[in-house]
Structure formats: structure tokens, C-alpha cells
Specification:
The protein is of the alpha/beta class. The protein has one domain (4-159): HybD-like (Rossmann fold, 3-Layer(aba) Sandwich). It is built from five helices and five strands, in the order βαβαββαβαα. The protein has helices spanning 19-30, 61-65, 105-116, 140-143, 146-159, and strands at residues 4-9, 49-54, 70-77, 85-90, 121-128. Strands 2-1-3-5-4 form a five-stranded mixed β-sheet.
Length: 172
């Protein structure tokens, strides 16, 4: 079975910016794994998938993703894309940013390919965030988008042939 890394990023203390953590927990649950109770807790280890949640993507993550066949990035967006929930393929491409602490999944894949000569297939799941206040709870609007986000992830997993065993995709 091919190994996949689900890597979510955002600030879970800023309401909808933490939607990735909630999505990772739902994916873990659907794979029959216990989800952590808090974002400070580690996700359980599993032969099917690994999970990583952080505040932002960093160049050092290239070494980790080089060890996987597939990577699914998960993040919130602020409405700058037309869809409320979108899953797109990520290509290896260095992208310059005017912000010093902003690294895109494309650039991270580019680092992985350049440094480690590995290029996992990758996708980015973006979910619309509506409120970014100081709270660990999601807004009702963003919370309502999680089932659609999970459906997109499951479609991608099946289309890519990542999990072909029906036991791996239980609860779908």
C-alpha cells in the first residue's frame, strides 16, 4: 500500500484558520484511527497514513515529505478563490512571496524535488474560513463545509488509487 502524508497548517487559536486540524481529525477517524483531543497532541501512527499539523509550512518539511508517495496539504482560505471548498493538484514550482514567513505547497514540493530528488504526487485542499477571531472553535459556516471537504479528499484518494482496500475506506 502506498503511504500518504496529510499535512494541515494554520493557527487553531484563530477560529477558522484552524480548520485543517479539524479535517485531519475527521480523516483519521474515517480511517479507523483515534483522533487527538487537542491540536497539541500527536496523531496516532498507522500503516495507512501519517498526519502532521503545524502553524505554517517550513522548508525543513521537504525532508519529511520526500519519504511519501502522496501528500495532501490542508489549509483555510479567506475567500480569495471562488469555491468554498477546493481540491487541486499541486505541482513542483518555486513561488516567490513578498512575505517572509509564507511558503506554498508548490515551493515545498520544489524544495523536495531539488534537494531530495523525490516528487510525491500532491494535492491542496482549501476550505473557506469566515472568521479569524481568537477562538479554538470553528464558525458555523466553516464547520458546515467539512463534509464537502472530506468528500473531496475521499474522491482524490480513490482517483489516485491511494487506498483501494475497502477496509481502508470504511465509513465512506
Amino acid at each position: 500500500m502506498k503511504k500518504i502524508l496529510f499535512t494541515g497548517y494554520g493557527n487553531p487559536d484563530r477560529e477558522d484558520d484552524g480548520v485543517a486540524w479539524h479535517i485531519l481529525c475527521e480523516v483519521a477517524s474515517r480511517l479507523g484511527m483515534p483522533a487527538p483531543k487537542s491540536y497539541e497532541d500527536e496523531f496516532p501512527q498507522n500503516d495507512l497514513a501519517d498526519f502532521n499539523f503545524s502553524l505554517q509550512l517550513t522548508p525543513e518539511m521537504a525532508e519529511e515529505i520526500a519519504g511519501y508517495d502522496h501528500v495532501c496539504f490542508v489549509d483555510a482560505h479567506t475567500g480569495n478563490i471562488p469555491e468554498q471548498v477546493r481540491l487541486v493538484r499541486v505541482e513542483s514550482e518555486f513561488q516567490r512571496s513578498p512575505f517572509t514567513h509564507h511558503l506554498t505547497p508548490n515551493s515545498l514540493l520544489s524544495f523536495c524535488e531539488t534537494i531530495y530528488k523525490k516528487k510525491p504526487s500532491a494535492a491542496l485542499l482549501s476550505v473557506r474560513g469566515y472568521h479569524f477571531r481568537f477562538s479554538r472553535e470553528l464558525s458555523e459556516e466553516t464547520l458546515a463545509l467539512i463534509p464537502q471537504a472530506i468528500d473531496l479528499v475521499w474522491d482524490w484518494l480513490q482517483t489516485e488509487g491511494i487506498f483501494t482496500d475497502s477496509k481502508a475506506l470504511k465509513n465512506t
